[in-house]
Amino acid sequence: MKKRADLPPGVLEPREAVLRMAPYSPPTGGRADKLRLDFNENTVGASPAVVDFLKEHISAADLAVYPEYGAAKRELAAFFGVDEDELVLTNGTDEAVQVLINTYVDDDDEVIVLAPSYAMYRFYAEVADARVREIPYLHDKLDFPVDELFDAITENTRAVLIANPNNPTGTGTTRAVIEQILERAENAAVLIDEAYYEFCGVTALPLLRDYPNLFVSRTFSKVYGMAAMRLGCLFSQSGNAEFLHKAQSPYSVNSMAVLAARAAIRDTDYIRKYVTEVLAARELLYVGFEELGIDYYPSRANFVLFRAGDRAIPIRDELRRRGVLVRDRSYELAGCVRVTVGTREQTRQFLAELKAIW
Ligand SMILES: Cc1ncc(COP(=O)(O)O)c(C=O)c1O
User: Fold this and answer.
1) 270 near 49, Cβ under 8 Å?
2) CB crowding 298-318: b at 16 or more within 10 Å, else e
3) Which terminus, N or C, of the chain has the lesser number of Cβ atoms within 10 Å?
4) Which residue's alpha carbon is nearest to atom 16 within ligand 1?
5) What is the DSSP-derived secondary structure letter of residue 223?
């Protein structure tokens, strides 16, 4: 086979689709000992009950055997109010997106994503060599582009991937609009990624039995404080779930993740209190921004996008030097920086550092 001239010697040529992709490399180190307001995680950690449950239930013998999912599927299905055969456990939402694409999208098929949105939608669509069509969030307030999305959906659309609320804009849409999307995109797999559901309370899950093209995902990476465990749930009608399972590796979710989830869903009090704290801290953050004269986009999730103008990257870097991590988004939204909302105490610390450099 002929070697491509622009590859260094000793490198095997990958698929064309992989060659074409822009690299996506979020930081994977150097975050310890900092105030981590850069990944929309739970900033105080998982419920202590999760850690206790893991310690109690993990033995050397347990580690030696391949995972079994029976108890976790039963308990999680009951918790989410679905049947067990409507639930697919995944290695984070990321694997949910990957499995959905592997199940429904072929080379050259059309996939619609909104922009900017969660990077993994485009990532897996591109790996699959799909044609990705991007619909931008509306300029001024970053509102959900309802009409533009309706116009873009055709009978050739194979998947529509939506985060509600959306990352990084923090804006969201209603269940009524989601129903209209499902009706228009009847030949497509429509994913509603509800990673931040607990902070906004809007869900498409009750529509599951009405729409065979609906897929809903939830994650344990955000409010549950279990990003390290890599656990997500993908919901759809049972006939679809069967095909998703068929396209999924049988043991992609590990035993500790499912054990942790079983304990996490029992400690609803912990989640409720954390959400209340974050919503109070978000109000505090808005007030702080207003005092500093900083424009921001009101959010329905545990992060807020604010405008730092042409200082977005210097501000991110200066905050990092001061021990506070935030995420620059200026590469996709001019001048914008995203900050995760944690506790009120952490928000005060962030605002004090921001004030010092603003
Ligand atoms: C919209 C959205 N979906 C999903 C995730 C997380 O995915 P996972 O469950 O793979 O950790 C994120 C994290 O940033 C996100 O913003």
Assistant:
1) yes
2) ebbbbbbbbbbeebbeebbeb
3) N
4) 167
5) T
Statement: the pTM of the whole predicted model exceeds 0.70 = yes
Looking at residue 304, its amino acid is V
pLDDT surpasses 80 at 209: yes
Angle between helices 255-264 and 70-80 (to 10 degrees): 40
Residue list, ligand 1 pocket, CB within 6 Å: 40, 92-94, 118, 163, 167, 193, 195, 219, 221, 227, 232
Whole-angstrom distance, CA of residue 305 vs CA of residue 188: 31
CA distance linking residue 41 with residue 321, whole number of Å: 21
- Which two tokens mark 248? 């999924």
Query: Could you tell me which of 155, 167, 192 has the C-alpha nearest to residue 177?
Result: 192
Three-state DSSP class for 79?
Answer: helix
The rounded Å distance from CA 38 to ligand 1 centre is 13
N residues, the chain = 358
H or E, element range at 286 = helix 268-292
Cα–Cα distance, 146 to 344 (Å, whole number): 34
Residues in Cβ contact with 25 at an 8 Å cutoff, skipping those fewer than 6 apart: none
Q: Please state, in angstroms and rounded to a whole number, the distance separating the CA atoms of residues 335 and 312.
A: 5
DSSP three-state, residue 17? helix
- Per the CB < 8 A criterion, the answer to whether 162 and 190 are in contact is yes
What is the whole-number distance in angstroms between the Cα of residue 18 and the centre of ligand 1? Answer: 22
Q: What is the pLDDT of residues 265-307, one digit of tens each?
A: 999 999 999 999 999 999 999 999 999 999 999 999 999 999 9
Q: Which amino acid is present at 224?
A: Y
